[in-house]
Write a structure and sequence with these properties.
alpha+beta; 11-stranded mixed sheet; 8-stranded mixed sheet; 30 strands; about 20% helix; about 35% strand; elongated
């Protein structure tokens, strides 16, 4: 698919054919009233929407018709916002009661049987499964607003990304909205929330009579009555907060209806009107622009982008047609500045944002079980940073570059400022293989307690990636390296992204055309172990501790004194080992000479040899005695040094925190 330009083009909104959404001509509205038209809809990502109706009422009541299973939600989230006139007195609604459950119907053994009730003719609303909730007013002149939450299809995001060669890209976000409410939304203010607040199904319209303890005529309590508890007021307890004020001044409403100037990023600035709502639905929205609106087909009458020719993709001409982006309560909110009309059983796709972001197309080596060849070949990916000020929801994304369609991928939930790396194809001209090796290195003093030395050592695991580029152009690659639990990256390559949440690191690599490059990822896990004071590892660790200017001064002095004794002990032990080895060899030679003498003891012709062997035996025996004397002297010296050594380290008590971070 070739395009004449590499810029996105769009209209603010366009309708989607309603045939696939039709649920039958007899489908009834979720909740409706002829007295108050829908003025505002806020749609969430959890199957509910906040509806706001408003208008002038000259009667003493307002009747809402709704499906039976919606009565509970309507009552649980109903919020009444009056702009003038008298107040609301009550909200009346029918309840379903099974006549067979009434006391008269049940009777007792002595009561005469009751005749069966006559069947009652069902009304048209009952045949359609509708109930009526009546909002009673105590006057006849009302400027009334009513808000409530009802079930609604989730809105779904869809993205477009055009990648340029200069390190940036154009990102568009669209929202697909489906109206299955049973009535048309005519010129409503529409807001989309990138979040899913807790919204449960309420059953306030169903009578609940809990069981109670039974007391006999004699006063005997068969079931115990629970006892009550009383909490006394505490000093400094805060009084109950006053009810939230509702902005209902006509002047404020007129101010909110003024056109809002657009910023360079397409976010209108201006007054935002706060209105109290049920179920915590955010109620602030940018004012609708008086000039220009969406027609019945959901297409902007003055904000259609310049198509610029067949197949061209360009940015929207009017940035004021984009949604205002705000973050409220941790959730991203998109407020469309122009009224929208969405007929029942139809859908509309509206543009939420369009702006430039840092982005590029490159390669990602991330083996996936669902794509067997990804074990040796990288994916082609689009990479961009969400700089729009709000979070992006999970949704499909279409990627373009140099006027061509590259592919599609899925964007995971992306907070503001985060970077997405979205695979859309497999690149077979680049091959990757890897190998891994482990070793143990280093030695640091960690603890000295009860004359026991504990040191820290690093378990090093190095993974080597070899990247072979068989293409004609240089390749920029990211390697998704699975991180070892509890390990840290040691001297990672510049630009490495250590993603703690995903348990992986993105390590960059560059390889020239028809060339091979190597990438080494070094991970280290620090562990503690008891060490022999006289081992090489202990000697290196203690010497490093003594030489470190940051080490504890008192411990350094004690170790310096003790380490002189320790070195003398090591030296003496070395000398003793040499004496022991020489003594063993000499003892073997002496024993061999004795065997030779016994062999020629009765040979009268071997007098000369006998004399020679006898002299040698006397010489070796004398030397052996000298070696034994020196060994005894060394053992005595070693015993004295070891006593002094034990005294030198006996009162050293030192502990450092476990090592963290790169070393």
């Amino acid at each position: 698919m070739r395009l004449q330009e590499s810029r996105l083009c769009c209209t603010l909104a366009f309708p989607i054919l309603a045939g696939s959404l039709a649920l039958g001509c007899g489908r009834e509205a979720i909740a409706t009233t002829d007295a108050l038209p829908v003025k505002r809809v806020v749609i969430y990502r959890n199957g509910v929407a906040y509806f706001e109706r408003s208008g002038h009422i000259d009667t003493d009541e307002v009747r809402f018709k709704m499906k039976q299973n919606e009565v509970g939600d309507f009552l649980a989230t109903l919020a009444v916002m009056e702009r003038g006139g008298s107040s609301v007195r009550a909200a009346a609604f029918p309840i379903k009661v099974d006549d067979d459950d009434s006391p008269r119907a049940q009777g007792d053994d002595t009561s005469p049987p009751l005749p069966p009730p006559k069947p009652r003719e069902r009304t048209e609303d009952e045949k359609k499964g509708l109930e009526t909730v009546v909002l009673s007013l105590d006057g006849r002149a009302h400027d009334l607003q009513v808000g409530y939450v009802a079930e609604s299809p989730v809105w779904r995001p869809s993205y477009r990304l055009v990648v340029h060669t200069d390190g940036d890209a154009e990102l568009q976000a669209w929202g697909i909205v489906e109206n299955l409410s049973g009535e048309d939304w005519k010129n409503v203010r529409l807001s989309l929330i990138a979040g899913a607040p807790l919204a449960f199904q309420a059953q306030l319209g169903v009578p609940v009579i809990p069981p109670r303890p039974i007391v006999t005529d004699e006063g005997e309590v068969i079931a115990a009555v629970p006892h009550g508890e009383t909490t006394l007021q505490q000093e400094g307890s805060a009084p109950a907060p006053p009810p939230s004020a509702v902005l209902d001044e006509p002047a404020a409403e007129r101010e909110a209806d003024k056109p809002a100037p657009a910023t360079s990023m397409g976010r209108p600035k201006g007054s935002r009107r706060q209105m109290k709502s049920a179920a915590g639905a955010p109620a602030s929205a940018p004012a609708a622009e008086p000039s220009g609106s969406l027609g019945a087909e959901g297409v902007s009458t003055d904000s259609v982008a310049n198509l610029g020719g067949a197949g061209a993709i360009s940015s929207p001409r009017s940035l004021r047609s984009l949604a205002a982006v705000a973050v409220e309560g941790g959730a991203t909110r998109y407020d469309l500045p122009l009224p929208v009309t969405i007929p029942d059983r139809s859908a509309t796709m509206v543009m939420l944002l369009s702006h430039q972001v840092p982005g590029e197309a490159l390669f990602l080596f991330a083996p996936d079980e669902g794509v067997p060849d990804s074990v040796s070949h990288p994916f082609r990916v689009a990479r961009f940073t969400n700089g729009g000020g709000g979070a992006l929801e999970r949704g499909p994304i279409a990627v373009f570059e140099k006027g061509a369609f590259l592919g599609q991928g899925m964007v995971d939930p992306l907070p503001a400022g985060a970077t997405a790396t979205v695979p859309f194809a497999l690149e077979r001209s680049i091959a990757v293989d890897q190998d891994r090796k482990s070793d143990e290195v280093g030695g640091r003093v960690a603890k000295i307690e009860n004359s026991i030395l504990t040191i820290e050592r690093d378990r090093v695991t190095q993974t080597k990636y070899r990247v072979r580029n068989g293409g004609d152009t240089p390749a920029k690659l990211l390697v998704k390296h699975p991180r070892i639990v509890g390990a840290r990256l040691f001297a990672p390559p510049k630009g490495t992204e250590d993603n703690v949440g995903t348990g992986s690191a993105l390590v960059p690599a560059a390889v020239a055309a028809h060339a091979t490059a190597e990438l080494v990822v070094d991970e280290r896990v620090t562990g503690r172990q008891i060490a022999d004071w006289f081992s090489v590892v202990a000697d290196n660790a203690v010497r490093a501790f003594i030489a470190d200017a940051k080490s504890n001064h008192d411990v350094v002095l004690k170790l310096t004194t003790g380490w002189t004794l320790r070195n003398d002990i090591v030296k003496k032990r070395g000398e003793r080992d040499k004496l022991e080895l020489e003594t063993r060899k000499l003892a073997q030679a002496t024993e061999e000479t004795r065997r030779n003498l016994r062999a020629i003891e009765r040979n009268k012709t071997a007098d000369t040899l006998r004399q020679k062997l006898t002299a040698r035996l006397a010489e070796t025996s004398a030397h052996l005695d000298d070696l034994n004397r020196k060994t005894v002297e060394l053992d005595s010296q070693l015993a004295e040094l070891e006593v002094r050594w034990s005294e030198a380290i006996r009162d050293i008590d030192f502990v450092i925190p476990a090592a963290t971070g790169a070393t």
